[in-house]
């Protein structure tokens, strides 16, 4: 029985090493994309900054665009960082949806140009949340908040919470695309608040 244990231990170390190298490549890519821009950054620049052989890059990412995709996942797939107990505690549901959007969009200002690059290359931002479960959890969390609003008398009971949750999900990403693609400077947080206010104005109990 000792042999399988040793093998499992070896595989575990390999997996940890692979994960560590992948994270080094991502961190180096993000730093260089911010400093030089995506177009001016070469794979050789990334591997040099990460301290790995050039061929190692392609063991993790078939193309440079795949790195951009992975970085997008990190930027936009932060649902696991949201504290559910705070989200579903006391308070107005409309404010909680705003807080959820603010939490998910936090830190995007620094990487607006990278997001613009993703949009320019035809990447759909919702698809950057690679795990289908994460996308479902985002919609489900919005639906649960709307149901809480119904119980608290804030949201009409005749509305389809799944439909409204899907609308909020879609509008969230539409505003990020509009914000990062626009030549005009406006506050993403303020725009997201306006979207939430618009939706809740249509579903609120009168």
CATH structural fold name of the largest domain: Tetracycline Repressor, domain 2
Beta-strand content estimate? under 5%
Number of beta-strand segments: 0
What is the rounded Rg? 21 Å
Secondary structure class reads: mainly alpha
In N-to-C order, the SSE pattern is: HHHHHHHHHH
Q: Summarize the amount of helix as a percent range.
A: over 70%
Contiguous low-pLDDT stretches (5 residues minimum) are 1-9
Distance between the amino and carboxyl termini: 69 Å
What's the rounded overall pLDDT mean?
83
Task: Tell me which CATH architecture of the largest domain applies here.
Answer: Orthogonal Bundle
Indicate the CATH class of the largest domain: Mainly Alpha
Major sheet summary line:
none
Overall shape:
elongated
Could you please describe the fold and organization of this structure?
This protein folds into two domains: 59 residues, Homeodomain-like (Arc Repressor Mutant, subunit A); 131 residues, Tetracycline Repressor, domain 2 (Orthogonal Bundle), CATH 1.10.357.10. The radius of gyration is 21 Å and the shape is elongated. The N terminus is likely disordered. The protein has ten helices and no strands. The chain has 206 residues and is mainly alpha-helical. Helix 1 crosses helix 4 and helix 7 packs across helix 9.
